[in-house]
Each structure stands twice: as C-alpha cells, then as structure tokens.
Specification:
Distance between the termini: 29 Å
Order of helices and strands: HH
Shape: elongated
Largest sheet: none
Number of strands: 0
Radius of gyration: 14 Å
Helix content: 25-40%
C-alpha cells in the first residue's frame, strides 16, 4: 500500500497540475506505513492531512 501511495502521489493526472508534497507529509506516510508493518496491523488506507498530528514511532516488544 505504501509503494502504491507514493507512486500515485508522484504520477501526474491528466489535466491536473502536480501538487508539490512537503517533506513532513512524506515522513508521516513513512511512519504510518512502518507502524502498521511493525505492529502487524492491516492498513485500509494510507493518507496524511496537514492538520493531523505527526504519528509517533511504534514501540514493539521483541521476542527472542
């Protein structure tokens, strides 16, 4: 899902100007995708709105 979201953001849609994404938006998407992977939770959608708070990094207990 992360890969598809990033490709969709980079692709220009016909007739629409490409909006420049800021670094904060990219980092938030990386964190959301990583947290879902680390906690083994499925993602229904991957989205970040500028007014949303920055996601915290998930803390996962490792088993040996």
């Amino acid at each position: 899902m992360f890969r598809n979201t990033m490709f969709r953001m980079a692709r220009r849609q016909a007739g629409q100007p490409q909006r420049r994404r800021d670094t904060r938006e990219h980092v938030a998407l990386y964190l959301k995708a990583f947290n879902a992977w680390a906690t083994n939770e499925p993602l229904a959608h991957l989205r970040f709105v500028a007014r949303d708070p920055m996601p915290a990094l998930a803390i996962v207990a490792r088993s040996r």
